[in-house]
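your task:
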Amino acid sequence: MLRSPLITVMIAAARKAARSLVRDFGEVENLQVSLKGPSDFVSSADRRAEEILFKELSKARPAFGFLMEERGEVKGADASQTWIVDPLDGTTNFLHGIPQFAISIAAMKDNAVIAGLVYNPVADEMFVAERGRGGFLNERRLRVAGRRDLSNSVVCCGVPHSGRGNAERFRKELAAVQGRVAGVRRTGAAALDLAWVAAGRFDGFWERALSPWDLAAGMLLVREAGGLVTDLDGDTQVLEKGTVLAGNEYIHASLLSAIKAA
């Protein structure tokens, strides 16, 4: 696995925050939660993990700024370098005792993501990547799946929930894809979905209405695993538009065509 100074900092911060998350996950029924928006719950576990990540990453790289789910944007002395952090991707899964959630950390320099980490502490799966140096799951090199035909593929998607997203548009997209693939999955954690595309578990993934902290690390993982990541218009403005389509070049092209037709 990559062990550059930057990746080492990210791994150490993630593991420390993960210990707090795992303790809280073991007592999920006792968590105090606050309502942030329609069907969007943020737990005290989420806030504790974010505080740990903020402190650890700030200590290691004091000049970096931050873009975080709870804190929002925090300016750093070096305006060219930013941490993009989601302390708990898959909050709803976490609150329901479903062990499909992750910490996501990305390092951005001059508006380009240069390093990414997605860590599922329950499974102890650490996905890391650096631009130009490949991606790894623990000690194994990541490669996207090699399937070229949608009919043999399992793809993942995000489903709009109450009060967020265009459900009717999603139904049309799903109908266009569902009849052409071997299976469709919805896991509820976009950062992990992208990591699983990078690992070849999913052949493709698409979702709308996402934030930069949902996307930045996983996007780099897929690209460093040999995959293609665009927005749902086929362009490169993934973080700006908050839409994503990922897969190898063949599955990506087929999914993009199906989704555009819908």
About this structure: The chain has two domains: 5-141, 150-261.
